[in-house]
Structure formats: structure tokens, C-alpha cells
Amino acid sequence: MAAERFAVAVVGGGHNGLVAAAYCARAGLRTVLVERRDVIGGATLSQPIWPGYTVSVASYVCSLLDPRIVADLDLPAFGYQAYRKDPASFTPLADGRSLLLGADDQDNAREVRAFDERDVAGLHAFEAEATRLGSLLFESFADPEPSFAAFDDATQATLRGSAAEFVERYVRTPVLQATLATDGLIGTNAGPRAPGTAYVLAHHYAGRALGVQGAWGFVRGGMGAVSAAIAGAARAHGAEVRAGVPVERIALRDGRASCLELRDGSVIEADAILVSADPQTTFLRLLERDAVPPALYAKARDWSANGVSFKLNLALGELPNFSARPGTLEQPHHRATIHVAPSIDYLQTAYSDAQTQGISREPMLECFMQTPTDPSLAPSGKHILSVFAQYFPYTRSDRPWHSEDRAAIADLIVATLARYAPNIPGAIEHRQMLAPPDLEALIGLPGGHIFHGELLPGQIYEDRFPLRTGIDGLYLCGSGTHPGGCVSGFPGRRAATAAIGDLAVGVL
Ligand SMILES: Cc1cc2nc3c(=O)[nH]c(=O)nc-3n(C[C@H](O)[C@H](O)[C@H](O)COP(=O)(O)OP(=O)(O)OC[C@H]3O[C@@H](n4cnc5c(N)ncnc54)[C@H](O)[C@@H]3O)c2cc1C
Predict the structure, then answer these.
(1) Whole-Å CA distances, 246 to 23, 36, 132, 268
(2) pLDDT at residue 507 is higher than 90
């Protein structure tokens, strides 16, 4: 079979691979993208899991997508539309109280005052500092040579600290502390008192997709609409986007990456190869061992990527009826991120339980419902409750995963939610359960790690994988490179910029 020839070949059709392909095609380079699965999007995917429903299978909210990418690729012309989630968070308590926070300072003050007057000013000061840090991070996300060491000492010290320490500096109400600290724990195999979780928190304040530093929102049509829009832009610029095409091997010729060997036996030759598969897949599986620089091989082997997040998608026949804010008719809190996070101690126990028992017996939960603001995603009157739960490690401390664990954990999560909204168990019509081993099998995330590896100091900035791999012609363009995970597009854009530059000056 004759090899096809392209200027650029991209491995993996997650949103970062798509961004890379779109930029390369836009630069006039003949570009092909090949995705292993039959669907594109990777972890940024909507699927009709149940009849009449469109489910954001993995990621569900958006903040970090780089506005420059949205503008450069004219994503709104391809159907991308994000809107702010407001209120932002709702945290019910078992005693019937609750905390609802959103965009309005006066509403927030009223909510916080009901717990502790002093925290009104504290929350304000926290938000100012978190958005300042988020803004600093955003400004460094496109850096070709990212350097954590370039931050001033005080900033580095804060980011190397724990999420708990950070929030406790500003506020004292346990439910407020826990609500704010959860941003430091998402996807992370660490408790709220672990060093570096303040960085994860700040990372979640880095986004500007909604036009407000640190604000989060939904994408109309679900997260798959992000990938579909980028793919649309890539195709419009002439890129070929092919799904159902697993790459078996990246082959070198004369020391440089020269072609992709596909499972069907065919070969794609390219001047530049950009890989958005995670670093472990790339360096431990797709390349021959002797082709990988030893330091990179060791880094991939030792990479920390023990995913702890369990995704439970539920179809509900009615909205949750929270004891703290009763009613099944839509109310503002139904549009917010619904947290089960009553205190830092609760979150710490959720983590330490997993160390001693294998899984959290009382998990931290983050739940989202887009259907109140985008009813097109479900049949009339029905809703999707998307639950993100921790800690359920891929490598358990007690024993390996058993297939019946999924249902037991889903039941545990539902029982936890039922303490706050007792109608949920009876409202469930369908459920999709994704434990870390399922995220690995389905989406191809080794260890089921949602960010292609921890986003803690030691694995960020100069310590993440370099986009230039040290193998001529081979670039990393996925979340394994700076600035790491989340739906941001930065890794894809950075790698495309480097490859386009190298091709232009004839380095390749
Ligand atoms: C459950 C979950 C919830 C999340 N929630 C959010 C959220 O709400 N907001 C947010 O911003 N982020 C969230 N994230 C993180 C975010 O989704 C990811 O960081 C991001 O989507 C990763 O994008 P990527 O393009 O770098 O990689 P991926 O999306 O992982 O794409 C890599 C692609 O490469 C393909 N591939 C791998 N090997 C091969 C091969 N040999 N041949 C061809 N193709 C291959 C894979 O199939 C995959 O499609 C979540 C992630 C998960 C899993």
C-alpha cells in the first residue's frame, strides 16, 4: 500500500489535537488528523447515550478555552456558544442550611452573612487573590518556555501550598471553606491539605472563556459542541479529520519522526507529527523504546497519573428537590454547581478513606445540570445530572477493581446525594457509570487521569512534558504538555505554533 504524504499529521482527535490541526491547516499546511475512536472529541464529547438525551460524557463545563483560539478559528461560525453558569455554586448542608454563590456581590454577602458576617469581606479578598493568581497563570499559559520559577517567591509559595491553607487565610465558615477548596482537588489524587493543591485551585481560576476571569459556564449543545466547532474550523481550512483510525506506531527514519503506522496497515508520512495522546501512550507505547530519549522515557515511566475521579451521568424524570431549598420547579440553585462538601475535614476524610479503605465512603461530589438552561439536551421535562465524584483511585489501596464496583459506587453516590435531595433515587431513569478504568478504556486516559497526569508542582510548567520532544519532527500537543489539562486548547495551539515556525524556517 502506498504511503500518503502530508506536511503535518496529528495523532488524536481530542480538542487539543483538533486545535493543532486547525492551526496547521490555517497556516496552509496539508494536514491530517487521525483519531483512534469512532468519534472525535476525546474527553470533550457529547453523545446520545440514551434516546433523546445528549450527554457531556466526561468534561461538562468550560472556562479555560483560550479566547484567541475562539477568535482565530471563528468558532462561533461553527456553532460554539458558551454562556456563564450563574449562580456558580450551591452547597446544601444536612442541617437544612445551604450556601448559594454567584455573580452578584450583594446576593453573595447575604448568603455568607447568614453564616458569619466576617466572611463577607473574607470572600471578597479570597476572590480578588484567586482571580489575580488565575490571571497570572493565564498570561503564562501560551509561553513557549514555561517557567514556574519565573513567578515571584510569594506567588510560588502560595501555589506550592495547600488549597485548605489558602482558603483558611480568608474565610472561616466550614461550608464556605470547603466550597472554595474543591477547585483545588478536582481530578487530583491529593487531599485539601496536600502541598500544591493551591496551584490546582488557581488553575481553575485561569479561564477567560466567559469574558470574566475565573468564571465557568456551559457550552450550548454540551461539551461535544466545542470539539465539533474546532473540527468544523479545521475542515474549513482544509484539514482532513479521520475517526476510527488507531495509530499503532510512530516510526523514525534517520533519527527523525517520519510516519504513522496505522492499525489497518497503511502508512501516513509527514514532515511534522503532533501527538495529542497522553505522554505515557506516546513514549511508552507508540514509539520504540530506543527511539525515546532516556530522560523522557524515565519521565513517562515515573509520571504520576493515578486517576481518582468517578463520573456518574444520571437521567432524571424531575429536578432534585433539596431539603434546604425545596421544590421540583426550576430555581436558581438548579443551575449552579451542586457541591457535597460540607467542610474541609469532610474532604480530607474523603481522601484519607481512599488511602486506607480503597475508596471514599463519603465522597466529595460536584454535580451539574445543564438541562434547565439548555432543554434541547433531554426529552421534554427530563434532566441530566452529571456527577463528578472523588476519591475512587484507579490503583486502589485495598484490592483491584471488580466489575460490580461501579454499581455499588453509583449507589453510594446516589445515597450521598439523597441526604440533601431525597427525591433523587426515585427520579433516576438511566445511569452511565465511568470509573477511572472505564475512562482509560473509553477515552484512552492512562490511569483514568482526567488531566493526562497530575497538575501538581513537579508536573507543571517546566516539569510537564516539553512540546518539542527531542525527537526531530515530533511534538506533543495534548494535556501532557504545558499548561496541562482542562478544555483550554493551549497545548494544541502552542505545539502548532512551534511546528509551523520550524517548518517555515526549514528546520524540518
Ligand atoms: C470525567 C472528566 C471530567 C472533566 N471535566 C472537565 C470540565 O468540566 N472542564 C474542563 O475544562 N476539563 C474537564 N476535564 C479535563 C478535560 O476534559 C481534558 O483535560 C481535555 O479534554 C483533554 O484534552 P486533550 O485533547 O488534551 O486530550 P484527550 O481529550 O484525552 O484526547 C486525546 C485523544 O487521543 C486519542 N488517541 C490516543 N491514542 C491514540 C492512538 N494510538 N491513535 C489515535 N488516537 C489516539 C484518544 O482516543 C483521544 O481522543 C474532564 C475530564 C474528564 C475525564
Answers:
(1) 22, 4, 42, 12
(2) no
